[in-house]
Write a structure and sequence with these properties.
Helix 1 crosses helix 2 (about 45-60) and helix 4 (about 120-135) crosses helix 5 (about 160-175). The chain is an alpha/beta fold and about 240 residues long. The chain is built from seven helices and twelve strands. The strands form three sheets. The protein has an eight-stranded mixed sheet with strand order 5-4-10-1-11-12-9-8, with helices on both faces. It has a two-stranded antiparallel ribbon with strand order 2-3. Strands 6-7 form a two-stranded antiparallel sheet.
């Protein structure tokens, strides 16, 4: 089985749609997606994801199933220093790298910062959501891997967001989400390809064959967007 995770195009967050650049990115993406043999499409309910998907779906005369849990993983937590709300996947390296529990795939949810918001509940909702989809294709979660009676050769594509994409990947791979959130980046309209590997009959795991691929943008001569990537700050003397 193959899963394509696709991030939305360059976002106009204020209006929950795409910028002019984002629409060009989505058009370049659509020409790539149209060549795939996709059995089913899924999409976030947010405008920037639906707009990105629309060009691919229109070109293929297809529709996508909207899943509410595919919306961006915006689950506010309370900053322990400022007392203000913040998202749980925007932490300074000098802070999070000194918190060993955040590296642990099972214990990160028990970190005091994560417990100030509904992170555990929302993480479970997303994990259950992707597992429900996989169960439709014959893959049933069994601790850190999946059991299957006969496997599947189906392909699905999921249009979503950076934060929630890494939540799903963390669940599939058994990796702490903070380790993915803080150390990896996928650009707008990037494609991440994950496939099953069944080395023992009936036991499957998911492996990443490509992460954040934006070759379609280079083909169309489009400069990739850095939206979601924090620019460096250089001290001035």
């Amino acid at each position: 089985m193959k899963i394509y995770f696709i991030r939305h195009g360059d976002p106009d967050y204020a209006n929950d749609t795409l910028t002019a650049r984002g629409w060009k990115e989505a058009e370049a993406l659509s020409k790539r997606v149209a060549k795939w043999d996709v059995d089913k499409f899924y999409c976030s309910p947010l405008g920037r994801a639906k707009d990105t998907a629309s060009l691919s779906l229109d070109l293929m005369n297809r529709t996508a199933e909207i899943k509410d849990w595919l919306r961006e993983f915006y689950v506010p937590v309370i900053d322990q220093e400022t007392g203000q709300e913040r998202i749980p996947w925007d932490l300074m390296p000098s802070y999070w790298t000194k918190q060993p529990v955040l590296y642990d795939k099972d214990s990160w949810l028990r970190h005091p910062l994560m417990k100030t918001g509904r992170v555990a509940e929302e993480y479970l909702r997303v994990s259950n959501g992707i597992d429900e989809i996989l169960e439709e294709y014959g893959y049933v979660r069994n601790d850190g891997y999946y059991v299957t009676k006969q496997g599947s050769d189906k392909t699905i594509a999921i249009f979503c967001h950076l934060g929630v994409q890494f939540v799903m990947l963390s669940h599939l791979f058994g990796i702490s989400p903070p380790a993915l959130w803080q150390n990896f980046f996928v650009a707008p309209t990037s494609v991440t390809e994950v496939v099953t590997e069944e080395r023992i009959k009936g036991e499957a795991c998911f492996r990443c064959k490509r992460l954040g691929d934006i070759s379609h943008l280079y083909i169309d001569g489009i400069k990739p967007s850095d939206s979601g990537f924090f620019n460096e700050v250089h001290n001035q003397e």
